[in-house]
Q: What sequence folds into this?
């Protein structure tokens, strides 16, 4: 698995608990992203970050939080406020140029199940 | 609002037949356009992007600004082309996140 690593691959959470999903990249990419993938819904953007110590909400940020303390790392916390957290979570990174991203490199994903 | 539509959830064709996966977008300005592919048990990966006009594995995509479409085409489908395909326009001007279509599941029958 070169470039971008997500862990764990599978995660089980009890209702009411917060969990943190890890995403690390060694591609020297400035931008990192979190998406949620549900059947029939495609990919929906949760949060993204263009530089260290800065991040923006995506389309479905409610119930999630992130941090970007290092360029290489962009962890996602799924809080107890997220009403339907069971999903497949994808992390991605990209380089930035004036014309937008060159395209994303994706991690292998984390499947979160609330039990 | 930015929108991208992939009208077909599922597309099934026979091996050797031509394939066209449709993508329509509603964006202001001139977006950059991407197609991503996810093969079974593999990561989502970039298939092609409009600006580079590349052709990968026989796939091409033409931007039609009049129809605001970016359909993906393959003249002779192979069984290994079976996968989920996502269209993703980007409005440019930074890295503020791609908006993905809901995807089309392409099945190539032998």
A:
């Amino acid at each position: 698995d070169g470039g971008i690593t997500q862990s764990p691959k599978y995660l089980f959470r009890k209702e009411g608990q917060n969990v943190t999903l890890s995403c690390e990249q060694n591609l020297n990419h400035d931008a990192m992203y979190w998406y949620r993938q549900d059947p029939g819904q495609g990919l929906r953007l949760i949060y993204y970050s263009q530089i260290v110590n800065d991040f923006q909400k995506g389309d479905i940020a409610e119930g999630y939080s992130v941090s970007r303390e290092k360029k290489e790392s962009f962890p996602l916390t799924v809080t107890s406020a997220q009403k339907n957290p069971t999903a497949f979570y994808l992390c991605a990174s990209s380089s930035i140029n004036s014309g937008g991203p060159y395209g994303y490199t994706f991690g292998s994903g984390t499947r979160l199940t609330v039990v | 609002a930015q929108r991208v539509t992939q009208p077909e959830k599922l597309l099934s064709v026979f091996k050797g037949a031509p394939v066209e996966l449709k993508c329509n977008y509603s964006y202001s300005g001139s977006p950059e356009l991407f197609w991503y592919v996810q093969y079974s048990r593999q990561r989502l990966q970039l298939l092609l992007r409009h600006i580079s006009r590349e052709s990968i594995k026989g796939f091409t995509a033409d931007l039609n600004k009049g129809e605001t479409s970016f359909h993906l085409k393959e003249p002779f489908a192979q069984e290994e082309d079976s996968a989920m395909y996502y269209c993703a326009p980007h409005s440019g001007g930074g890295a503020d996140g791609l908006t993905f279509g809901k995807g089309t599941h392409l099945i190539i029958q032998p």
In short: Chain A has a mean pLDDT of 90. The CA atoms of residues 39 and 87 of chain A lie 9 Å apart.
